[in-house]
Amino acid sequence: MYTRKTPWGIRVARQEVLGKKPLSILEKIRENLERLNEKMEVMIELQKHGKKDIQMLPAEAPLDVMTLLSMPDHLRKTAMTVCRLGRATAEEVAQQTKRARAVESAYLNQLVIMGHVKKERKGRKAYFYVDRDTQG
Amino acid sequence: MILARIIAVHSYKGGTGKTLLSLNLAATFVKRGKKVCLMDLDFRAPSLSTILKIDKAECWLNDYLNGTCEIDKVLIDLSDRFHDKDKFFVGLANPTTEAIRNMSAKDRKWEMRALGRLLALRNSLLEAKGFDYLVLDTSPGLQYSSINAIVTADLVIVATTCDRSDVDGTKRMLRELYDLFEKKTEVVLNKVLHDFSSKSGRDEVQSRIKDVYQVPLLGIIPCFCDISKAEGNAIFTQERPDHSFAKILDELANKIDNSLV
Question: Would you call B109 an interface residue with chain A, using a CB distance cutoff of 8 Å?
């Protein structure tokens, strides 16, 4: 018997039979939801500020001071914070800029799309950094 | 609360006294017991090596920014000039024509890496080596190396004069450069010819400066013939500790020591 009925009559897989599989499936669903959420945040920001702010650049666009100067104010603040911190999560950037984590997450992902910042996932955390070593 | 520990000295025009101010401010900090590193980031017209009479260096700041050496190899210990130990270090720009030419031809990617290496000095010098202040002397105007220094700094001191084109350019630069980077900025009005003997004269200049630039005034330095006569041969505040210039610099250092960003 691989399933059991809940008091409400819903048939669910029995964890003792499937081992840790349901947990890992839930973990995967959460990860995908988080990624979907990040994409939604970027889309919301795109609508809010207009697409003119985000020029699609080649995969790698140097984040030099002249580029920083030409950015819209809201992105410059985020980009400068990443420059200063070297490598940071949206939460860490938000602590410096005093803006909401979700806002910084959206701005950071915009900077990734623009090719100025790189993103790396480690477990459930996403780290953003300026790739000064490989660019060039 | 973070102390302003990386100070960039910048100006719109050349000849406003950036190097004189940087060198003597660094020297004043040393006399106040601080451990200071002075860096010449004016790669287009290096001058600290001449003033300090240093012809050769194991490595120059150019090499550090090129990524070919670490900062330890660049720093020259000049503490003995203050009869002290482990207090005053300088990093020099290579003054040869070839080096100046090379630095003028760098691309955006190089400048991005240079910014990263300048930002890394906060850890390598202030945190790891215990420096109290890092003073960055820059090129005038909107040069890459100067803007990199501004982005790195906690405090930007803008050296300006009463020259009309300098005033207009400085105003623009404050609005269109420093404001965008949200930098703590203060102005030093240098080479002033106004009458400073009365308090009303000083107050008038101070209120005019605040109205024009809309940023705090760190200090006013009168035009001293004695400084011109010294012909940039030495650290003036050290040679003439009782001179009015040395006293003004001590006031500036005191304000910075107490200023919080």
Answer: yes
The model's confidence at residue A124, banded by pLDDT at 50, 70 and 90, is confident
pLDDT at B14 over 50: yes
CA–CA dist B233, B52 (Å, integer) = 8
Residue B14's alpha-carbon distances to B48, B163, B170, in angstroms, are 15, 12, 12
Q: Assess whether pLDDT exceeds 90 at residue B224.
A: no
Q: Is the pLDDT reported for residue A12 higher than 60?
A: no
Domains of chain B, start order = 6-258 (3.40.50.300)
Q: What are the residue boundaries of the structural domains of chain A, listed by start?
A: 20-129
Q: B53: buried, middle or exposed (CB in 10 Å: 19+, 13-18, 0-12)? A: exposed
Chain B environment of A65 (Cβ under 8 Å):
111, 115, 144, 147-148, 151
Minimum Cα–Cα distance from A70: chain B residue: B180
Interchain pair B151, A68: CB under 8 A: yes
Chain B: closest CA distance from residue A43 (Å): 26
Interface of A with B in 47-76 (CB under 8 A): 62-69, 73, 76
The tokens describing B204, both together, are 């008038």
pLDDT digits (tens, 9 = 90+) for A56-67: 555 568 899 999
Of A65, A130, A136, the CB nearest to B148: A65
Q: What is the pLDDT of residues A78-122, one digit of tens each?
A: 999 999 999 999 999 999 999 999 999 999 999 998 999 999 998
pLDDT tens readout for residues B155-203: 999 999 988 899 999 999 999 899 899 889 999 988 888 766 677 777 8
Class of domain A20-129: mainly alpha
Between CA B115 and CA A65 the distance in angstroms is 8
| CA–CA dist B51, B235 (Å, integer) | 8
B226 touching A (Cβ < 8 Å): no
Average pLDDT, chain B: 90
Determine, for residues B119 and A83 on separate chains, whether the beta-carbon distance falls below 8 Å. yes
The answer for residues whose C-beta is within 8 angstroms of residue A14's C-beta and 6 or more apart is A1, A2, A3, A4
